[in-house]
């Protein structure tokens, strides 16, 4: 797939998530050095794991689109939010095998909602797992 999609309005965001089974959203800011440090890796994850309609990556500048950040309780940058079921539910099931270290925010149902901070290991582990799932589903369907 391509570079992450830059989202600038709530309407764009809603439309984007409605088109993909899984969405990984990078909430960032121009003034945030860790955000800038994570940007190339996030782009690489999008290129290597993104699959149209299945797994997509988006970037939201919190200063330009604060409504989306507020809706999901984003208070620190960078934060990486995980949505599934075409935006109908937030959080994803991930194996509890120790691959997600500090920085993961889990919901009451045990699903991973987001990763806060610039730890590439956590983000890479989750993106790789989602990429594996969508590839496996595509292979099974073929």
TrEMBL record:
Source species, domain of life: Eukaryota
Pfam families: Thioredoxin (PF00085)
Keywords from the named record: Disulfide bond
Keyword Disulfide bond: yes
Domain Thioredoxin residues, every copy: 1-139
InterPro entries tied to this protein: Thioredoxin-like_sf, Thioredoxin_CS, Thioredoxin_domain
Family note: Belongs to the thioredoxin family.
Protein name: Thioredoxin-like protein
Source organism of this protein record: Diplogelasinospora grovesii
């Amino acid at each position: 797939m391509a570079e992450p999609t830059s989202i600038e309005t709530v309407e764009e965001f809603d439309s984007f998530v409605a088109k993909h089974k899984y969405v990984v959203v990078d909430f960032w800011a121009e003034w945030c050095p860790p955000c800038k440090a994570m940007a190339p890796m996030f782009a690489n994850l999008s290129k290597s794991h993104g699959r149209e309609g299945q797994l997509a990556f988006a970037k939201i500048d919190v200063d330009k689109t604060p409504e989306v950040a507020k809706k999901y309780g984003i208070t620190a940058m960078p934060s990486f939010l995980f949505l599934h079921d075409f935006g109908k539910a937030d959080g994803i099931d991930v194996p509890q095998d120790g691959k997600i270290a500090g920085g993961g925010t889990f919901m009451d149902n045990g699903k991973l909602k987001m990763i806060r901070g610039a730890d590439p290991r956590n983000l890479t582990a989750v993106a790789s797992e989602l990429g594996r799932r969508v590839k496996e589903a595509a292979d099974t369907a073929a």
